[in-house]
Specification:
Layout lengths: L1 E3 L4 E4 L10 E3 L9 E2 L8 E6 L2 H7 L3 E5 L4 E6 L4 E6 L13 E2 L8 E7 L2 E6 L4 E6 L4 E6 L9 E2 L8 E6 L4 E5 L4 E6 L2 E6 L5 E5 L1 E2 L10 E4 L5 E5 L4 E6 L4 E6 L5 E6 L5 E6 L4 E6 L7 E6 L5 E3 L2 E8 L6 E3 L7 E8 L4 E3 L2 E3 L3 E6 L5 E14 L7 E14 L6 E5 L3
Parallel strand pairs: 29-37, 30-38
Antiparallel strand pairs: 1-2, 2-3, 4-8, 5-6, 6-7, 7-8, 9-13, 10-11, 11-12, 12-13, 14-18, 15-16, 16-17, 17-18, 19-28, 20-24, 21-22, 22-23, 23-24, 25-26, 26-27, 30-35, 31-36, 32-34, 32-36, 33-35, 36-37
Length: 416
């Protein structure tokens, strides 16, 4: 089964002829409708997972689909030929709303990929930089890992940061995550998040070798080989990469692909099928040989802002777009989160509250670091009684250097 996201449908095809669909699920029209395969509508569906047979028998569907732009999960009953909504409301999750409870009354936000792990459907929730879970038996959702802050921070699952997690894969005791915006491969094991490949939001490249020094560029797909190695659709490098957790080694399996966005293994495990999203084709590639690429490490360079030690005022400006107004019907319409790397850079002023202005106390003993700023603002249509709601969100990594002549104010604009 292939998610044909651009045609808002799913395609069923033989592994020997993956580009020749035998059946379609969905009308091909962008929408949000349950029903028969011929009636159902999706909105850019992406990840899929097949449930264990005993679970499928209890819940009445065999396959779960991440219906990404509908902010929902859909259940596919292959026997009866039907589609049902099993999680999400069709509305995007907003800060302050519940993140656990009844799956059909809790909003989700851009679920991108899903995987069966620890008897739950785990969800790469790209829209809020977290990993969620769905319990098909209890029909509930919950947050597994992440804080909604965008970045690369390891540690306990409740404190870790992700950046647009877009693919999941499972080994015996671990959930592996392609963390796209940090060009990283992350791992959740025993309620702890670690990074196997990748160093941060601004670092990328095509380099093989030790996981500590290897580089990816915006990976979007993962698959696990029976030998325990992780195969990675290294999308913006146009490559398939292999990471061996036992040796901590990264190699290149294939190059010159057209934006590979997902992968799966053939039945004999001697080849992989690759979705080349730029051409809309599925290509079969043997994996009996690998190569080593010594490329260039690249970094998005952002100039350091010179600030003074002591009191520094951080201000984020937010103005709703034309035709919209501040949406404070459900409480404060804005939120600002501030932290730093190293954490000791800020003596006071870190944390989260609803005000878009914050006074920070900068540590005079720290020479440089990065301020991590995340801001949100809610608006709604101004001329409609039941106008649509809009969430505006932006995350900044602000490199700073502490100098005596540095500025005492930082101003950022929350883009519309």
């Amino acid at each position: 089964m292939v998610s044909d996201s651009g045609h808002h449908s799913l395609a069923i095809a033989l592994a020997t002829a993956p580009n020749e669909p035998l059946q379609r699920i969905g009308t091909g029209k962008r929408g949000f409708k349950d029903g028969s395969f011929e009636q159902a509508e999706f909105n850019e569906p992406y990840g899929t997972v097949v449930l264990p047979a005993d679970i499928a028998a209890k819940v009445g569907y065999q396959v779960v689909i991440a219906d990404t732009v509908n902010h929902a999960l859909r259940g596919i009953n292959l026997i009866e030929g039907t589609v049902t909504t099993i999680a999400g409301t069709g509305q995007q999750w907003r800060p302050g709303e519940p993140t656990s409870g009844n799956a059909l009354t809790t909003n989700l936000t851009t679920p991108w990929d899903i995987a069966w792990f620890n008897n739950l459907v785990c969800i790469a929730m790209a829209g809020d930089h977290r990993i969620w879970s769905f319990d098909p038996i209890g029909q509930t959702v919950d947050v597994v890992a992440g804080t909604t802050h965008e970045g690369l921070v390891d540690g306990p699952v409740s404190e870790a940061w992700f950046a647009q997690p877009s693919a999941l894969a499972v080994t015996d005791d671990s959930l592996w995550i392609a963390d796209s915006e940090t060009s990283a491969l992350r791992q959740i094991k025993h309620d702890t998040v670690t990074t196997a490949i990748g160093t941060g939001l601004f670092d990328f490249g095509h380099i093989d070798g030790s996981g500590d020094s290897a580089r990816l560029q915006h990976p979007l797909g993962l698959a696990v080989h029976p030998d325990g190695s992780i195969y990675i659709a290294d999308t913006y490098n146009g490559a398939i990469r292999r990471f061996d957790p036992n040796t901590n080694n990264v190699s290149t399996v294939a190059r010159d692909l057209a934006e590979p966005s997902d992968i799966c293994f053939s039945a004999d495990r001697h080849s992989i099928q690759v979705v080349e999203s730029a051409t809309g084709n599925i290509t079969t590639i043997p994996i009996d040989q690998t190569s080593t690429v010594t490329g260039q490490a690249m970094r998005t360079v952002r100039p350091e802002l010179e600030i003074t030690s002591g009191l520094v005022v951080l201000t984020v400006s937010f103005t709703p777009p034309p035709g919209e107004k501040i949406d404070d019907r459900y409480g404060p319409s804005t939120q600002l989160s501030v932290s730093a790397s190293p954490a000791e850079l800020i003596l006071t002023g870190e944390g989260t509250n609803s005000e878009l202005i914050r006074t920070l106390t900068i540590n005079p003993e720290i020479e440089s670091g990065v301020l991590h700023v995340a801001a949100r603002g809610a608006s709604c249509d101004a001329d409609s009684e039941h106008g649509a709601c809009h969430m505006h969100q932006q995350d900044w990594g602000v490199p700073v250097r502490i100098t005596k002549s540095g500025t005492t104010s930082i101003e950022l604009i929350l883009a519309n």
